[in-house]
Amino acid sequence: MLARKNIIAILLGIELILNASALNFVAYSKFLAGNMDGQIFSLFIIVVAAAEAAVGLAIVIRFYQINESIHIDDAAQLQG
Amino acid sequence: MFAQILFILSALLAVAGALMVVFSRDIMHACIYLLASLVGVAGLYLTLGADFLAATQLVVYVGGVIILMLFAIMLTGGGREPSEKMKLLMQVPLMGSPRTYVLSFLALLVLSLTVGKLFVRVMEGFTSVDKLPYMGTVDSIGTLLVTKHVLAFEISSVLLLGALVGAAVIARPNKKRGAK
């Protein structure tokens, strides 16, 4: 029910997880009075998530050009 | 009171949006629900006092990543065909799925509350004499970025350049395969 075989759906899930971790960093740094390191860290998480989304979606589009599908089971070219 | 309302609304939006991302079968709907969830997380950042992060979240995710995702979904064939029930609903003007209306209403509420709270705090800083002017987190984050965390800052610039070039190279149409 929860399993997704669409590559873009998997990327959506990754964005969700990265957001959850960033929110945790901010929430914990709130209770360390005057410490901004958590906020800096979640800023870098946002940077990494943006870069990841750009490259990931480029790979998805390239994959679709080659395979005419974005199903994860079709990505089996590296399987021996 | 205002902060509590903002917290409850944005927590509800974040959790409900995240659940709908996971459970909705249509990939396009999942992307829109992710948008609602990210707006909720921006509201949560604001209740935690991280105003710069809330603004960055709105600009980078809502303005960038989600649009990129929507374009990628549409370029790779889009979602599935609308169901019979949905086709019937779509004949009525302005009628969509009720869930979409509920979530988008919540998102609009949180967005306006977020902007309103920022505005009120800034205006309080300008108008009140006895209180200190409202200091955001921008100056301390900026100072930390170029002093304590300058190495991570520079590395992330290289990472972004690499991602830019890499995405352009990967998504470029292949000339040899172009004739196919």
Low-confidence stretches of chain B: none
Largest sheet of chain A: none
- Biggest sheet of chain B: strands, sense, closure? none
Low-pLDDT residue intervals, each spanning 5 or more residues of chain A: none
First and last CA, distance of chain A: 30 Å
Helical stretch tally of chain A: 2
Strand tally of chain B:
0
Rg for CA atoms of chain B: 21 Å
Strand and helix order of chain A: HH
**Per CATH, which architecture of chain B?**
Up-down Bundle
CATH architecture type of chain A: Orthogonal Bundle
Counting structural domains of chain B, the number is 1
Query: Fraction of residues of chain A in helices?
Result: 55-70%
CATH topology of chain B: Four Helix Bundle (Hemerythrin (Met), subunit A)
Biggest interface, residues from each chain: A-B, 43 and 53 residues
Classification by helices and strands of chain B: mainly alpha
Please explain how this structure is put together:
The complex is a heterodimer of chains A (80) and B (180). Chain A is mostly helical and 80 residues long. Chain A has one domain (7-67): Orthogonal Bundle (Helix Hairpins), CATH 1.10.287.3510. Helix content of chain A is 69%, strand content 0%. Chain A has two helices and no strands. Chain A has helices spanning 7-30, 37-67. In chain A, α1 (7-30) packs antiparallel against α2 (37-67). The longest helix of chain A is centred in the middle third of the chain and has 31 residues, at 37-67. The mean pLDDT of chain A is 88. With 180 residues, chain B is mainly α. Chain B has a single domain (2-134), classed as Four Helix Bundle (Hemerythrin (Met), subunit A) (Up-down Bundle). Helix content of chain B is 76%, strand content 0%. Chain B is built from seven helices and no strands. Chain B starts with a helix and ends in a 9-residue tail after the last helix. The interface between A and B is large, with 43 and 53 residues.
